[in-house]
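Budget justification note: compute hours in this period were largely spent on complex prediction jobs such as the one shown. Inputs:
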Amino acid sequence: MTTLYVLDVPENTAVATVAAEDPAVTVGQLGPYFVISAAGPIVVDRRATGCRHAVWYSCVGGVARDGRITQHDKDALRVEPV
Amino acid sequence: MSERDHRVQGVDHVAFPTFDPAATVRFYRDVLGFPVVHSICAAGWGPEDHPDFIHFFFDIGNEDRIAFFYYFGTDPSLGGDEGAKGDVYARFGTDVPEYFVRSRHLAIHVDGEEDLLEYRRRLDASDWPVEMQIQHETIESIYTHDPNGYMVEITRAMRPVTPQEDLDANLTIDALLDVVAEPEPTFGKLLARKAELIVERAAEWESAEQAGRVGAADRELAR
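Corresponding output:
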């Protein structure tokens, strides 16, 4: 299980929207955070989000301990089960 | 969270030494247009062979001030050998990374794009043109170095800070304190700890806006 938390502010909305395009991924809400979760990896394509670097590299609010970030670069954010 | 009431009223002044008061006055008063609002002319006193000095202040808005000390009879060697990087107060060798050298800086706030571009225009017409203009999604800033080598940023917010960002900032800091209390803090450990704090606290969070709406609805019902 992988769970990624992203703060719900206007600049981050596209991160949750793009993540949700993968049918294996569910996006919920916990307080002011998007809760993005999947049984396997979560992959978000940076270009699809339209985020530029300041927002892109600071969009992760938290990653639950059963997952970890294996890629966070100009192409994609990838969170995989540990 | 602290229950101590918050009584402070912003920056009274921030102070730096200068060895070039003429250029400093040109930059802040004549180029940027920050009025001189206060100065102290003092004869040196005290046990440390203190030189005579002028302490002078420029208004940076909201009656906040940036101040300088000019010590008669001194030159930049007072602070040590000349560095390859840094400013007249802090010098660094070529081996010190730029992100570290630039980490300490003063950012002055403006209300909007028009004001930011006005300061850009003033700087670009001077000996200290804008070195970078960066628009992130949430802020836009211009940067230059003043005649003393101090990095000065002028910045505007692209949108107001939202209440959820204050919650997020507090969760970040609490997670950071937990992580730096343990050996070998990493960004990954911080994000893992923060995820736990989000689970513990985020559900209870209610934005001030929502609370306000609920409050208004309750008052409406009570009529």
